[in-house]
Model the fold of this input.
Amino acid sequence: MTAGLDQETWQAALAEAFAADGVESTAWVPDKRLQPIALGLRAHGLAPITLTREEECVGYACGHRAAGGRPLVLFQCSGLGNAMNAIGSLAVPYGFGFVMVLSMRGTLGESNPSQVPLGRATVPMLDSLGIQALSLRDGAEAAVVAAGACRLAYDARQVVAIILEPELDRR
Done:
């Protein structure tokens, strides 16, 4: 069991599934909602590398894929706009598939109006680059979604996004 992380949480299930599916490195832009996942990854020897911008996470992941690694990226959906050029000009055309875990903002229950535009645009932006967005609304599905996303990313060489929907925290 991870210190400070209840093994029964969806965050722990995601971390466990990523470790089991061979994720070797993680880059993230810190976020309160993603922190329990980062703690779970750390417990599996996958201490996340903290970066300051989302496109840096994409560059880090692409470099690891180019070297044959299995990277994971974590950031808020509001940072997806920052990362689009790196995803569209590097990750997608060169087949550097990796999993992005995006903490959703700007949708159900959001009180910060500045989060709404990118929250609304997240899935259409991903669609525009042909990236599958897998919505995670039920924590009981966390391990299945993570495992499937890893197969798409690492075997089929696709960039895949797991969207952490607000409903996860309301169950």
